[in-house]
Amino acid sequence: MANIYVSHRLSASESVQSGYIRAFTQWKILSAIMLLPCLGILITESAVGAEANLSWNDNSSNESGFRIERSSDGQNFSQIVTVGTNTTTYSDTGLQSDTTYWYRVNAYNEYGESGYTNITSFTTEPDINEPPTISSIVDQSVKADSGASGAIPFTVGDPETDSSQLLLSASSSNEALIPNSAIQVANSISGSSVSFIPGSGQSGTSIITILVTDGTNTVSESFQVDVIPVAVLAISEPANGSDYYLGDAIQFSPSILGGASPSKVSYYINGTLAVEVTQSPFTGVLPIPATGTLELQVLADLSGGGQIVSDVLTIDVQGIPNPTNLIVTEASGG
Questions:
Q1: 150, 254: one domain
Q2: Which residues lie below 8 Å from residue 237, measured CB to CB, with a gap of 6+?
């Protein structure tokens, strides 16, 4: 701004001092007036999350600073901050998401203030709630009637929510095989896990789906459970635990756990087929062919297709006992 010179002729009644004060006052008024046309401020804005970045043109040369005002309705403004000389930017942080704000700026010095810039507004972005995450869970295979599965670990997470605060639930696609009530899901600071108990006497396949929600978004992960029928071989005669001797006939009774029905049962001794039975109750009677340790096993062909093999049953077979207590008596003569 150009220098302003003020001249003033003293009247007869004015003293030198009073004349100086009057001239200085006139200079102050002119300085305030000169501030007004020196400002032509424009505001550009951008919103990043809940932050507004303001900028304007500083067209004055004698400002002490700038006042920044904000409004929530575009009409009623209040000052939020002042910035210093030659400052042309300001970042307004801590704003509410998904909210519209209006701004205006003016300059000031010790003698007065300028008019305002144009009013500009923008709307902050809404909050973005990221969905939770869940790791994959490997498919499971368990034996029928084997009781509860072990705890199967997995991991959950969320950008905005502590993982231990996420809500978990689970469901089964085959409730006859694995009821929903038989699925247990655990979630804590130490981690997450799922376990289940197949129904008694059941075999087949079910898909277990785990849902994870943060209260707004929900994600899921599924894994397959195969409950496999099991063949169990039992000796019914002689009683298990008795002594076994070469040539003894042993009666075997197979049990098929998991509800499957066999069409044929094959009995093996030391890996060699000994006998096949195709009629229920599929009991096998086997003569013991050798002494020593024998491995007995049963293979069942299922009527629906497929085969199951029992665990190996081991018995120790002794030789034929030696005769004892031979007595000879003299025959009576005639």
A1: no
A2: 249, 250, 251
3-state secondary structure of 12: coil
Q: Is pLDDT of 11 > 80? A: no
% of the chain residues with pLDDT over 70: 81
Q: What is the CATH number of the domain that holds 146?
A: 2.60.40.10
Residue 289 pLDDT level (bands cut at 50, 70, 90): confident
pTM (2 d.p.): 0.54
Cα separation, 193 vs 181, whole angstroms: 16
Top-confidence residue, 234 or 140? 140
> What is the Cα–Cα distance from 254 to 307, expressed in whole angstroms?
14
Which letter does DSSP use for residue 319 in this model?
-
**C-alpha span between 80 and 287 (Å, rounded):** 101
Domain hosting 298: range is: 230-318
Q: Look-up: residue for tokens 């008019």? A: 115
Q: Which of 228, 251, 279 is the last residue of a domain?
A: 228
> Per residue in 87-127, pLDDT tens?
999 999 989 888 999 999 999 999 999 999 999 988 888 77
Query: Are both 258 and 201 inside the same structural domain?
Result: no
Tell me, yes or no, whether 30 lies in a domain. yes
Q: Closest Cα to residue 72, out of 96, 88, 48, 50? A: 96
H helices of 142-258, in order, are none
Separation CA 175–CA 198 (nearest Å): 9
